[in-house]
Amino acid sequence: MPYKNKRPSGIAAIWMAMAMTLLIVWGCSSAPPMLSEDERTARRAVYTDGERVENFALLDAQGNFHELHSYGDAKAIVLYVQGNGCPIVRHGATDYRKVAEEFEPEGVRFFMINATGRDSREEIRREAEEFRFPTPVLVDEQRIVSDALELNRTAEVLVIEPASWRVVYRGRINDRMHYEAQKPEATENDLANALNDVLAVRPVARSDVPSPGCAIASKPSRTPTYTADIAPILERNCVMCHREGGVAPWAMTDYDMVRGWAPMIRQVVRTKRMPPWHADPHVGDDLRGDLSLPSEDARALVDWAEAGVPRGEGEDPLAQLELAPLQEWRLGPPDQVVTLNEQQIPATGLVPYRYAYLELELDEDLWINGIEFQPGNPAVLHHALGYVVPPGADDYNWVDGVMITYAPGNGQELAPSGSARFVPKGSKVFVELHYVTTGREELDQSRVGLHFADEPPERVFRTTGGYDLFFEIPPGARNFEVANEVTFDEPVVVYSLTPHMHYRGDSMEYVVVYPDGRREPLLSIPNYDFNWQRPYQLEEPKSLPAGSRIEVSGTFDNSAQNRFNPNPNQWLRFGPQTKDEMFIGYITYTYANAADDRAHSDRDHPLLWFPVPDGKGNGGAAAFQ
After folding, report:
1. Residue 508 near residue 553, CB atoms below 8 Å
2. Dihedral (CA of 494, 496, 500, 506) sign
3. Could you tell me what percent of the chain has a pLDDT over 70?
4. How would you write 281-303 as a 3-class SS string?
5. CB-CB contact of 484 with 468 (8 Å)
6. What pLDDT sits at residue 619?
């Protein structure tokens, strides 16, 4: 067998399920109490003063994603301002740990936030490990959040009340520390006192207490303008979707249009919802087509919106753009075009998967070195997956059999030089279509362009993945971990990585472990979003020696705080529909040596074969051109 996907045997799976049940019972019995809706109403009536905190999202020093409003079920949220090298922060971390240990069981969430804008994530991680910081350290690289919260001094603590989203306490942890001086014990425990007031749902007695700490300079910046700064950022990162007929709901056509959407641009940048690129830029090598927003560009967009959207001098850059037609084949004219039957999409609601079947009528084996999926209506087609159904079969392999992938912004696959996808004589292709609604009835008629190799290549372009079929996610579970691995018995070259989960998917990471035990992170998706599935293509393909394995790990959020979760009261198991869950880290690869690229049976993975849907109500087979 050319590779192995490690998974438990039947007996091992039973024992794992029993152990998980015990862990769930024990874990649920000790879960901290969280806010009920009645408590929220009572709290909003009490906490009417104090600055409101807008939602934001930051990665911590370990690369984990945190969005403020996702902790809205907490009794309170505490931020401790951190900066590398500050002695007051280092000494105060011990006191902060004691407060966290006392109040975390009561449902209070604790964080630190690096507000300097100068410390790198790696430097912050080393500082946190050396001084045993007790909580995650949020990294505010460009001080977008810190300036909004007026964080100008380290060692200051903010207490945020989540029902009202107001700062109800700002000040020191206690009176033990001061400049170049400290006492054996604190006599005024200001943070603990404030938290006791919040837990008792009464106004904080002392809500503003001066705090010693190291001064932090605000991020120096000039006021950006639309013509000089903002339009180039939007052209690089946004216009490919925000265009007439594009997948985005509005087009960035000129200054007047962008100005009207400036408040929303500011909001989605602060919460890292846009642009839809979810790979951690600090992990792995460069990725092709990287749409991530550099932190300085994010700061410019926020500053511009907050400065009153100044236009600047000169012509409007976006109004001058000449964009290629959307229906242009990006890989060039295909050798064959397959047109799917027209699909009618309702105005609203959840749309079950639609299916199409491409009867290729092959009288010989087919080698495909280029595939391009062209949505007829990008506004409604969420994603599409096409699988090879072998000759005479009525089932398909949902890992090894993947041939077509489409998600907004990613519809083309060009096989590496000297390789191609293999479709055996007599096969057909089964296409799964996932649609979303827009508020009005829509039509879609998508096409697939196929490019054929002139002759059989040296290697097959293949897909595999690390997957799990046995997980059981309990209702309300947060940070539920799943992991598996793929071992390659021969040298391979890896080209792309595609995480796949459903609405409860929260994060996924790929790590290669070499035969000598050395570990190398390949990709981290700390904020997985089912709405934006894409293959992450390595700019430089990764060569792996025989015996290497790729570990794929991820987390699920089945709690009510997951805004995508359709039902937090549901037990989740593996299943093909979005109401179920999946865990698969797809990997495309070729064998490094042509001699190793021998034929093998996909039936080596019997658990991965699914019956082909009967196609009722999906419009039938596709037409050829």
Report:
1. yes
2. positive
3. 90
4. CCCCCCECCCCCCCHHHHHHHHH
5. yes
6. 38
- pLDDT averaged over the chain? 89
617 has pLDDT over 70: no
Lowest model confidence (mean pLDDT) among 269-278, 495-504, 574-583? 574-583
CA–CA separation, 32 and 23 (whole Å): 16
User: What are the beta bridge partners of residue 355?
Assistant: 432
- By the 10 Å C-beta count (0-12 exposed, 13-18 middle, 19+ buried), 564 is classed as middle
Q: Side chain identity at 78, as an amino acid letter?
A: V
Tokens of 406: 């489409």
How many whole angstroms separate alpha carbon 375 and alpha carbon 383?
A: 9
Res. 623 pLDDT band, cuts 50 70 90: very low
What distance in Å separates the CA atoms of residue 128 and residue 108, rounded to the nearest whole number? 21
Instruction: Say if CB 533 and CB 383 are below 8 A apart.
Output: yes
Q: Scanning the structure block, which residue is given the tokens 């874990």?
A: 27
Distance CA 191, CA 91 (A): 16
What is the DSSP secondary-structure string of 79-134? EEEE-TT-HHHHHHHHHHHHHHHHHGGGTEEEEEEE--S-S-HHHHHHHHHHTT-S
Higher-pLDDT residue of 390 and 494 is 494
How is residue 281 annotated by DSSP? T
Mean pLDDT computed over 402-414: 85
Q: What are phi and psi of 122, to 5 degrees?
A: -65, -40
Segment (H or E) for 531: none
Q: Tell me, what's the pLDDT at 226?
A: 98
pLDDT category at 364 given cuts 50, 70, 90 is confident
pLDDT given for residue 268 in this prediction: 97
- Confirm if 555 and 506 have CB atoms less than 8 A apart: yes
Residue 514 Cα distances to 3, 36, 491, angstroms: 14, 48, 11
Nearest to 146 by CA among 270, 275, 317: 270
Predicted pLDDT of residue 568: 96
HSE-up (13 A, CA, CB side) for residue 288: 16
Q: And the tokens for 99? A: 């407060």
Q: Tell me the Cα Rg of the chain.
A: 27
Residue of higher predicted confidence among 35 and 334: 334
Estimate to the nearest angstrom the gap between the alpha carbon of 355 and the chain centroid. Answer: 27
pLDDT value of residue 6: 53
Using CA atoms, how far apart are residues 620 and 339, in angstroms rounded to an integer? 12
Three-state DSSP state, 232: helix
Distance of CA 260 to the CA centre of its chain: 28
Tokens of 332: 């060039």
pLDDT tens by residue, 443-484: 999 999 999 999 999 999 999 999 999 999 999 999 999 999
Annotate 146-166 with DSSP letters as a single string.
Answer: HHHTT--BTT-EEEEETTTTE
Distance separating alpha carbons of residues 420 and 418, to the nearest angstrom? 7
What contacts 24+ positions apart, CB below 8 Å, involve 285-293?
285/522, 285/538, 285/539, 285/540, 285/542, 286/538, 286/539, 286/540, 287/523, 287/536, 287/537, 287/538, 287/539, 288/537, 288/538, 288/539, 289/409, 289/410, 289/537, 291/237, 291/409, 293/233, 293/237, 293/269
pLDDT, tens digit (0-9, with 9 covering 90-100), for 16-25: 333 443 333 3
Q: How confident is the model at residue 428 (pLDDT cuts 50, 70, 90)?
A: confident
Tokens of 580: 């179920």
Instruction: Report how far residue 456's alpha carbon sits from residue 443's, in angstroms, rounded to the nearest whole number.
Output: 38
In our burial notation (b when 16+ CB lie closer than 10 A, e otherwise), range 352-363 reads eebbbbbebeee
606 — pLDDT class (breaks 50, 70, 90): low
